[in-house]
Batch of 2 targets.
Target 1
Amino acid sequence: MDKKVLVIASAGGHLTQAMCAVSQCDEIVIVSNKVNIKKDNISKIYKIMDTQKNPLIHFFNVFFALYVLLKEKPTAVFSTGGPIALPFALVCKISSLKFVYLDTLSRVIELSNTGKLIKKYHLYDEFYSQWKSVASKSNTKYIGKCFDILSENNYKPMTEAVEGKPIILVTVGTSQYDFDRLFEMLYKQPLYDNAEVRWVIQTGHNKLKHLPANGEIIDMTTRSEMEQLVKSASLVISHCGIGSINQMLAYQKEVLFVPRVSNFNEFSDDHQLQIANEISSKIFTVLMPEQVMPTITLGELLDRKIVTSPIDTTNYKMANKLKNVLFES
């Protein structure tokens, strides 16, 4: 009998981490709130209604979880979080199906809200944290990080010179929170009104007050399209989401991270600010809320080279450990 794992993860950073964590599993089925991913080991994808605190949607999703579990009959269920994991954790608890939970990398200080609920009501068979300090504080297990978020590996990528006008990519992810503060900083950049630079700005639901001299505005894009944009960019300006961090690492991209903060109503909490404190490196510059965005010059963009092929940042040691946990009797 084939061993199948059902993966529950919200789109974005949660799903990015999940795909790294189950990279050694031969067959996976995904449940997510957005369908924007393709991998050889994915046999099917289900789209679930997204919710944060709506009890009616949670109630409906319990029956949806039951339907998916009965239809797919997985060997085990795995989640990296997001509220959509809760109905599956509950049904697994009732049905005695193995549920393994890995709390998100973005929670550097304490467990995520979803993690806290799963831990409190013991809706799991195995519970892991990706930071040793959080695991110790929350009395959970540490299994390692699903990818090289701290840029600890010494990569030697193949590069090539920039051809044509350099590209600055701006991305704010899939969040429904406004991020006007970031766009206001862009307007003040001299290169924003310079046609020698091409801007590609992924705005989500945000609306720009004025457009760059040379640019393309997109509200949302697929993972593969975003990867191509990241690859070609000389500089990326990004919110500090886990999915974005992993993609930038893969192309060893020069990034200016601007974490969303709750004080400006840019997110419900400060987890992006917390992760920002951990990732500053020779290629990652983090702009804290009290700081002004540095002036970007055309010369520095032209001097940068482009990584031609993505680097695999997956932590395979951790992925193999997780595979054993998922499929052991």
Target 2
Amino acid sequence: MSILDLMPAPVRPWAIALVLLSIAGAGAAGSWVIQDWRYGNAMAEQARQSADVARAAAEATVGALVIEQEKRLALEGHLKDNDESHYRKLSDAQKAQQRLSDRLATADLRLSVLIDADSASGCDVPKAAGTGGVDHAAVRARLDAAHAQRIIAITDTGDRGLIALQACQAYVRALTQ
């Protein structure tokens, strides 16, 4: 006797259908579990690969940042050296101008200018004996000390401007390298 013989006849087709559906459901559930496992492994592998790519990109970015930081530090050092050099030039020029101004104030030094021989009319300043020059005994006139001070102040301002211009040009050159 089989299990089907124990069931009433009108219930048998339903029982067979229920058994077949249970078998099919178990197969579907089993394949669902297997697919879930396979897709889970595939997703885990894909996540690992994405993490590796992200890690490589982060390492490349960090490497680029380190290189740029080193460049920036080198540029800052170069600019600092340029600033110190130009500051030294500026202070040296100021000291030289101050010494010249002091010598003019104490009459230790007198400024003179070349004048046209036709307009000299008796204003000739004798040249020192035995000195060599390139003006071939041209007529010279001495400047008043106050005028000489103003001329020195003007040249001092010009020198400062030139030194500042050189500093700016060196700064721009350093930035464009």
